[in-house]
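Final report, closing paragraph on structural work. Over the funding period we assembled a curated collection of sequence-structure pairs, and we close with a single example.
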Amino acid sequence: MTGLKPPALLFALFLFIFSGPAWAGSTRSAAGNDSLSSEAAQPDRAAADSLAAPARQIVIQARRTSGAIQVDGVLDDPAWSEALPYCDYFFQQEPLDRAPSSEKTEIRILQDLKNIYVGVQCYESDPRKIFATVKKRDGSFLNDDALELLIDTFHDLRNSYAFGTNPFGVQVDAIISDEGNHINKNWDCIWHCKSKVNERGWALEMAIPFKSLKYKPGESLVWGLNITREIKHSKEVTYLVPIPRGLGHNGKFKGSLFAELRGIQPPPPGLNLEVQPYLTAGKTWSYQTDEFKSSTEGGLDLRYHITPQLAADFSYQTDFAQAESEQEVVNLTRFNINLPEKREFFLESAGLFNFGSSIAAGGTVVGAREQSEFKLFESRTIGIREGRRIPLFGGAKLAGRLGRLSLGAMNIQSKETRLDQSTVEPSANYTAIRLKRDFGTNSNIGLMLLNKQSSGADYSRALGADAFFAFTPELIVNGSLAKSFVPGIHDRDWAGDLGAILNKDWIDFSLRYTQVDSLFNPEMGFVRRGNLRSTDGTLALTKWINNGYLKSVSMINDIQYQTDNHNTLLYRENRLDFQFTLKSEDFFSYSIHRLYEFLPGDDYIRDIQIGRGGYIGHHQHLTFRSYKARRSAGSISYRWGDLLDGKTSTFTLSNITQITNSLNLDLSYSHETLNLRNGTIDANTLAGRWTYSFTTDLFAKYYLQWNDADHRLASNFLIDYIYRPRCHFYLVFNENRDTLLQLGSRKMKDRLILLKLTYLWSV
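Its predicted structure, as stored:
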């Protein structure tokens, strides 16, 4: 065969694009009516540097008010006239690096003895172009015009609270830890927000109670502040402060780049006690065992803020009544998979209990792999065994800060539970202790101690140390070392990793080494694969075009090299990925993977045996993803090639459609085929989610999932009414069917109907 093969052709094309001259195109200027020439647009970094003010020069002053503010999305309360407004252009990160945004944003911040008030007018030259689809609280508004407030209440340059909204006034909150290395989106706090579209664009008002935050004491404080505003019709991602494009979207969490919010005068500490009881009543039908039972359960969580920085939590009969079903995951690999935590008691301060680089190492690097080989602490191991619930008596937790020291301590007691006719899970006590000490501009070191104790002779313990060094916002080095302690095992029980991340201009680089001994087994953690030494490296080059057709192109080279602890090569993969983002924000990628995999002994994927030996192969991957800020958007991908002693292919298709302002439809389908020497698997997964939002406080959702690999058809119907902040009324109906059973009632595996009520009492 003559000529260039597709990867070589793409590589040559990329080199031509990357080294070629800037192509002419027009882009709106900050004033909205001028066009930037190619000379102004292409060396946008140099041009933007002259336009962008350093973050330390951006100061927003908070002022006290005694006037009343009604949070309704209309900035007409007389008290707003007392605020010192900040009205200027934000700084783009996309499409033009640190150039002024196309629209102005006006910010006003006030406070009284109870709340911080934020009023924002988002100017739009044509309000008809404002785009929003999400009304559900804590829904993902990444596709909408949106505004997100980041507040660093300790001014420690590393942690912050996030409060976001869109033109519908939806409320989304999160806790950001270690510059975005851990993002707790499931955190839920009391605050108020309303938004409204007006003749100048759209406006919003927020009221955030001081008692919902942890912060340093003092008479007049300086907090860190950043604000994100997304303008969908012009495809702009903008920030209050200039965030270099090389840092990616996680650059907005870099506290050292934040502006300053001055003049915050917090109230003197009060009792600050929260009591949140819950009550559930339901009925369960288990058709396979002919068990039918009704149950009523109750319990409570209690939180007491010892200081504005430190809180104690207590839980009795810890709430397990998860309202929303788990998403179906078909595991056609030889390794464990990790599912997210959703229980409220474990979500508060979850970032503090995050250890080492157990988050996605290199998550800020374009195209980096998002997986970890081990997690020293995984809260889903508490009270859950092989997918079955283990009831908990309750527990206690202490979490917060003492100066530059962050500390967390948790103790949980489970009940003895019969899992089946022959298996009894004994009562166990779980303890987790975490310490972190900040130093330097934005670095820390930490310790973690874990203990699971069923009896005097039956225990599992682990001890670990980790460190995070942020030498600059662009350069990070982190690592960890851990050891497990299990009766009868005294060696080969260590794990650790060391890595570096560099985000700079047009180049992204990450390198990480991980080692997991064969007998490392923390029962309160997660190990994807033991007896492993893994080296992962990613190099990404990005060229920003910003002409009439292309926004950017990227080339990513990723190498993964894994051996066992005797240096026997187990796995080697080299990925070359070409990514193209169009001016329309539609996205296309093509990648080719060359790999080698060695099995030291016979292994299985499900019930298919794979013989010992080395396997060489390659596969390719095509992906297209349309711009999400449309009424209907979707993605399609196809992966095909070799796998061990056979072939594999995976086809996925997804679509999100906004049928009306209140009704959204989310569909996804995947088909995965394994044609191996000793067997074949065809796995289909189909899911549909219909969400109807009556208001931002009341929504109904129906979720249907079909998975023929596990012969499972599951449905979940949910009504969630937030009648007061953090006070919910749920109606849940779940049903699971086995598609292999005979037709009729025996096709049903189980069914559940549940009413759940939570109430928050706060003083």
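Helices lie at 6-19, 38-41, 44-51, 344-347. The first strand starts at residue 59 and ends at 61. We thank the funder for supporting this effort.
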